[in-house]
Amino acid sequence: MRVFFSTPFRLLREEAPLTNAVVIFILTTLFYFLGAMMRLVEQLSLFWPLNAVMAGVFARYAFLQRWHYYLISYAAMLIYDAVTTNWGIDSLLINFSNMVFIITMAQFIGAKRHQMLEAPEPTSVLMLFGYCLLAALLCGFFGAIGSVGINGQGFWPLLAEWFGEQFSTGVLILPGVLTMSWPHKPLQLSLQRSIPIVAVVVSVIASVVIGGAGSLAFPLPTLIWCAVRYSLPFTSLITLLTGAAEIILVSSRVIDISIASPMGMSHMFSARLGIATMAICPVIVSVSVETVNSLMRQVSLRANFDFLTGVYSRSGLYEVLNQNDKRFADKHVSVMLLDIDYFKSVNDSYGHECGDQVLASFARQIQMVLGERGVVARMGGEEFVVMATTLDSLEGVQLAETLRLSVANHPFQWRQQTLYLTFSIGISSGKTNTWNLTERFNALLETADENLYRSKKQGRNRTTHSEVAVKPSATSLPDN
């Protein structure tokens, strides 16, 4: 079940190392710039997206996990610092800590790539959560050592700040980076579908108005609502924006949670851990919903389509009709009941495996000739039904004859032997209505069944519409 590592962008390609190097350098510089813009004076950045984004990029594109690509990213960080700061040699260790997070996450996810694809998706999310904890701790250790000489803080407060920031941004950003893909169609948000997003905004406003540490959890129910209603990538985006907004609001004291910590930790450390823990919940819910939806689609597919022939099953055809398919509602339609002549002799002479292959080939041939004019369904055994839009009953008979002759002149190959089939058709035509499409189909099918009986009784390999049978033409093959 492929929730993480969904269809990637084709910006990076294994066969284009120079392009890869340029893209990595540009991405590193861009997100370093964004993080630097939120860097407090002589302090850590309020929100540092670089490490999580680049870790996600290296994890998704396994061919990038080479030391020369890592060195290009590291060089981009050093160049940016050399131009914009006066940190000097301290920049080597600070940016090394960034690379520790990036490489650790990329290697962890890469090593468990297959397990994360095959394990239940909520477990994959929890694995990602654990990876962020360890990578943030390693990153914080080296980052705190490198930062001691810059802002004068002690090692332990710096470790807490580094760890909290890296952990929160990793949990907020990585699910979105790992699941991001080009949308197959434009996102359509009606007023009703937009309500969960409005609820998220209202919950954040409530956090500002009410304040206190508990207010950070206000958006959680609305984020879970989003997880149920929207796709995983979109839910990850909303969660990221909500978490980032809360971090900024807490830092600027718009949301006031300044309560003394028994361990002497800053309120931002506590806020970041709380927000990260909250952010993982809607992601787990969204992954679980996608898992359930995927299973439901598989069950629906198996129920609505015949496994052997690939055409609709009886239940699948009625599902189409129950949805008032616009192809058939308020149209003149022809319902044809097809029965392969003497099919039992194929099973008796060549075996059931041959019979299965013949049924599958027969269905493909009918579907190919029918095209977009209608649908084919297997009603059971060697009996199929075709429902097609036609101008009148005469065109319906002509289409039925086209189908019959195409099969009669189509050779079926089986183990160096060539088989020819014929089949009998009963057809009924009439106008449908939107409000009773299924009932109208049943009535036409009943008449088609009666006409199929007449075709068999009159010698098979023919089409019968009402009381008139269309005899085989000169180009038809003799009965089997």
Automatic annotation (TrEMBL):
<feature type="transmembrane region" description="Helical">
    <location>
        <begin position="46"/>
        <end position="63"/>
    </location>
</feature>
<protein>
    <recommendedName>
        <fullName>diguanylate cyclase</fullName>
        <ecNumber>2.7.7.65</ecNumber>
    </recommendedName>
</protein>
<dbReference type="InterPro" id="IPR000160">
    <property type="entry name" value="GGDEF_dom"/>
</dbReference>
<dbReference type="GO" id="GO:0005886">
    <property type="term" value="C:plasma membrane"/>
</dbReference>
<keyword id="KW-0472">Membrane</keyword>
<keyword id="KW-0812">Transmembrane</keyword>
<feature type="transmembrane region" description="Helical">
    <location>
        <begin position="166"/>
        <end position="183"/>
    </location>
</feature>
<feature type="region of interest" description="Disordered">
    <location>
        <begin position="455"/>
        <end position="480"/>
    </location>
</feature>
<feature type="transmembrane region" description="Helical">
    <location>
        <begin position="195"/>
        <end position="218"/>
    </location>
</feature>
<dbReference type="GO" id="GO:0052621">
    <property type="term" value="F:diguanylate cyclase activity"/>
</dbReference>
<feature type="domain" description="GGDEF">
    <location>
        <begin position="331"/>
        <end position="468"/>
    </location>
</feature>
<dbReference type="GO" id="GO:1902201">
    <property type="term" value="P:negative regulation of bacterial-type flagellum-dependent cell motility"/>
</dbReference>
<feature type="transmembrane region" description="Helical">
    <location>
        <begin position="271"/>
        <end position="289"/>
    </location>
</feature>
<dbReference type="Pfam" id="PF00990">
    <property type="entry name" value="GGDEF"/>
</dbReference>
<feature type="transmembrane region" description="Helical">
    <location>
        <begin position="230"/>
        <end position="250"/>
    </location>
</feature>
<keyword id="KW-0547">Nucleotide-binding</keyword>
<dbReference type="InterPro" id="IPR050469">
    <property type="entry name" value="Diguanylate_Cyclase"/>
</dbReference>
<feature type="transmembrane region" description="Helical">
    <location>
        <begin position="123"/>
        <end position="146"/>
    </location>
</feature>
<keyword id="KW-0342">GTP-binding</keyword>
<comment type="pathway">
    <text>Purine metabolism; 3',5'-cyclic di-GMP biosynthesis.</text>
</comment>
<feature type="transmembrane region" description="Helical">
    <location>
        <begin position="21"/>
        <end position="40"/>
    </location>
</feature>
<dbReference type="GO" id="GO:0043709">
    <property type="term" value="P:cell adhesion involved in single-species biofilm formation"/>
</dbReference>
<keyword id="KW-1133">Transmembrane helix</keyword>
<dbReference type="InterPro" id="IPR029787">
    <property type="entry name" value="Nucleotide_cyclase"/>
</dbReference>
<dbReference type="GO" id="GO:0005525">
    <property type="term" value="F:GTP binding"/>
</dbReference>
<dbReference type="InterPro" id="IPR043128">
    <property type="entry name" value="Rev_trsase/Diguanyl_cyclase"/>
</dbReference>
<feature type="transmembrane region" description="Helical">
    <location>
        <begin position="93"/>
        <end position="111"/>
    </location>
</feature>
